[in-house]
Amino acid sequence: MLVMEFSRRQVLLGSLAAAGGVLLSGCGGGESGGGSGGAADGEGFPVTIEHKFGSTTIERAPQRVVSIGYSDHDAILALGVPVVGVRYWYGDENTAVQPWATAAAQQTGSQPQILNMPTLEPEKIAALQPDLIIGIYSDLDQQNYATISAIAPTVGPPAGFNDYGVPWQDATRFTGRALGREAQADQLVADLDARFAQVRDANPQWAGKQAAVATRGADNFSIFASQDPRSRFFGNLGFVTPPRFDEIAGTNFYADLSFEQATELDHDLLVWDQLSFTPGGRATVENDQLVSRLPVTREQRSIFLEGAVENVFGWQTVLSLPAALDGIVPMVEQALPRT
Predict the structure, then answer these.
(1) Predicted TM-score of the model (pTM)
(2) Which residues, including other chains, have CB under 8 Å from residue 83's CB and lie 6 or more apart?
(3) Which of 113, 161, 194, 308 has the most CB atoms around it within 10 Å of its CB?
(4) For 18-63, how does the pLDDT look when each residue is reduced to its tens digit (9 = 90+)?
(5) Domain 8-181 is classified in which CATH homologous superfamily?
């Protein structure tokens, strides 16, 4: 847990609900409207998914999908499949879907019940009578997986990644396999990867440069390691995460730094995230004498993610990333312009 006493949920989200906009309200029934129904009827089933906690066989196209990962429902909705239950993450407890996913939710007729669970609660999940549970960006572990998977077939995160470190590409494809929509998932990934490639091609000066994604709390800085989706975002733009960050973080997705370690933040690009958690917000960072002395600050190679940009950046899904690119790329182009 962070020294600044963030909860794990807060550390993950990267923003407060106030940074968002108008959200789509979920209703309590956990039902789907007149959308596309469940997953692709009969196509690709049965299918066995190998994941971090074992293997899961899905015998037939699921009709009642529950997402217990904090952001997993974005990929489900993007694939045209309704969800009957979604995990509450932050903000208004009566909302379920973020602005960038509203259209997809409406197209599927989704009106999911919101599962407000600081930790997984099997009774709440079972009450929705799911026939598939997806928990990629979640707090599943071997112990609670055994309990949750007894309710319905449950897909955990793919093996080989740190907790909360699955890239959006893998999460989307993994979800597509479970839903019998693998080809559709591949297309979604290809289309968004093409957008990243277009930005990289337009900005060759970023290739191999080091980008540090950091936050400032009341008592410390925090940095995100290379397997965190926020750092991966800049990797997709051609940057690399400072190797020192992984040394400090170990197997965690983030690490804390004391104020005296501010020089660890001095890299080609410094990205200030989670400013809605910073007491005093951006002004606190800008008035920090240790930060102001860094060459990256003096040379104006820092960017600040605030408001709606902070909100959309925190999700890192196939639906949220187009808006993140729209908001962030112009800032990076100004900080590190093409010469």
Answers:
(1) 0.87
(2) 32, 65, 66, 67, 73, 76, 77, 108, 110, 112
(3) 113
(4) 333 333 333 334 544 434 455 555 567 999 999 999 999 999 999 9
(5) Nitrogenase molybdenum iron protein domain (3.40.50.1980)
